[in-house]
């Protein structure tokens, strides 16, 4: 197994640092995204207390009776809000659905914002009022951290620091709370049934809370799986396909998966909370001219973020 270096970077050195520290942060995140597509981030603005509250609510949500959760699976929303039950999402190229259930929270904007009509209302959990408030707070905090990360990436790419700001302002980001449920009968499990099959994320960048639990692995360039570990409350941040496309593969959307635990731990749940940072649907994902040259010919056709998302949701079975 090759050893992969996933740098641990302090976001505060970018937000409040000296010129030199800010430059060092940009270079480090850019280099890591160019090589392995993953970093871990400390000082991201979410307190331990908030993260603990979040997990308490997420555990309570998935502990609700099945018929209560099913009430929140709303047809026509393609899983983008509320509950998505077991056996619904299948990674591209896989036949067996992932061993997970999840709940998604979307963007909220002011009533008079032009984007208001684009985003369906979030589904409120009547049984757990605190779930609704804590997930909203986490959404806004992760969105804020994500915007700083995109500024650092813009600098690395030689763009203006604020290149992404208006593209992600009121963007179509999704906070996903995930439960990988206990596997009661490992013998009955089909061979290729896994918690999350090998996939790439669709969006610009993903910020993940709670990846300190074992199971997340990334695919290295020499085609071996490498475990991703985070310290304590650190975020794991990775590049998604939209940013890879925009940069003509200069920044890598690395394949990752969540493997099943060893047999003796199959009865344990695993929880995680990724935030998929999306731009507005109008963002043009055509590769930046600066990333195309004789050595790096243009790899992708031009597409908007909205068209691309639609295509991908159909592929994973969430949109019909
Ligand atoms: O649960 C995890 O650690 C990762 C989840 C993930 O990769 C995803 O939902 O896209
Ligand atoms: Fe993922």
Describe the structure using short key phrases:
8-stranded mixed β-sheet; alpha+beta; 320 residues; binds fe (ii) ion; Iron_ascorbate_oxido_reductase; Jelly Rolls; single chain; metal-binding; 28% helix
Question: How would you characterize the overall build of this protein?
Answer:
By secondary structure, the chain is of the alpha+beta class. Helices cover 28% and strands 17% of the residues. It contains 8 helices and 12 strands. The strands form 2 sheets. An 8-stranded mixed β-sheet has the order 1-2-10-7-12-5-4-3. It has a 4-stranded antiparallel β-sheet with strand order 6-11-8-9, with no helix packed on it. Bound molecules: 2-oxoglutaric acid (AKG) and fe (ii) ion. 2-oxoglutaric acid binds next to β5, β11 and β12. Residues 170-279 form the Fe2OG dioxygenase domain. It is an enzyme of class 1 (oxidoreductase).
Radius of gyration: 19 Å
Which class do the helix and strand fractions yield? alpha+beta
The CATH class assignment is Mainly Beta
Average pLDDT: 94
Organism: Mucilaginibacter achroorhodeus
Pfam families: 2OG-FeII_Oxy, DIOX_N
EC number: 1.13.12.19, 1.14.20.7
Pathway: Alkene biosynthesis; ethylene biosynthesis via 2-oxoglutarate
């Amino acid at each position: 197994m090759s050893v992969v270096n996933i740098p641990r970077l302090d976001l505060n050195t970018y937000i409040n640092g000296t010129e030199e520290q800010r430059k060092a942060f940009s270079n480090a995140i850019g280099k890591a995204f160019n090589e392995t597509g993953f970093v871990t981030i400390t000082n991201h603005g979410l307190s331990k207390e908030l993260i603990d509250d979040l997990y308490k609510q997420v555990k309570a949500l998935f502990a609700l009776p099945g018929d209560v959760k099913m009430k929140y699976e709303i047809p026509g929303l393609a899983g983008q809000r509320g509950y998505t039950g077991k056996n619904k999402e299948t990674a591209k190229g896989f036949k067996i659905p992932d061993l997970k259930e999840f709940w998604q929270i979307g963007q909220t904007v002011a009533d008079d914002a032009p984007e208001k009509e684009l985003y369906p209302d979030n589904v409120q959990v009547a049984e757990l009022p605190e779930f609704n408030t804590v997930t909203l707070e986490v959404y806004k905090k992760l969105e804020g951290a994500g915007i700083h990360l995109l500024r650092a990436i813009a600098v690395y790419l030689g763009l203006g620091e604020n290149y992404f700001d208006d593209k992600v302002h009121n963007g179509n980001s999704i906070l996903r709370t995930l439960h990988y449920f206990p596997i009661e009968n490992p013998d009955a499990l089909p061979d290729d049934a896994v918690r999350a099959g090998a996939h790439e994320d669709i969006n610009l960048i993903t910020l993940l809370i709670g990846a300190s639990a074992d199971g997340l692995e990334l695919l290295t360039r020499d085609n071996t799986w490498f475990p991703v570990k985070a310290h304590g409350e650190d975020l794991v941040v990775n590049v998604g396909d939209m940013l890879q496309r925009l940069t003509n593969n200069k920044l890598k959307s690395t394949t990752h998966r969540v493997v099943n635990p060893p047999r003796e731990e199959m009865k344990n749940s695993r929880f995680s909370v990724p935030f998929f940072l999306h731009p507005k649907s109008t963002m043009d994902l055509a590769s930046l001219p600066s990333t195309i040259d004789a050595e790096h010919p243009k790899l992708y056709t031009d597409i908007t973020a909205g068209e691309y998302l639609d295509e991908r949701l159909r592929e994973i079975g969430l949109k019909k």
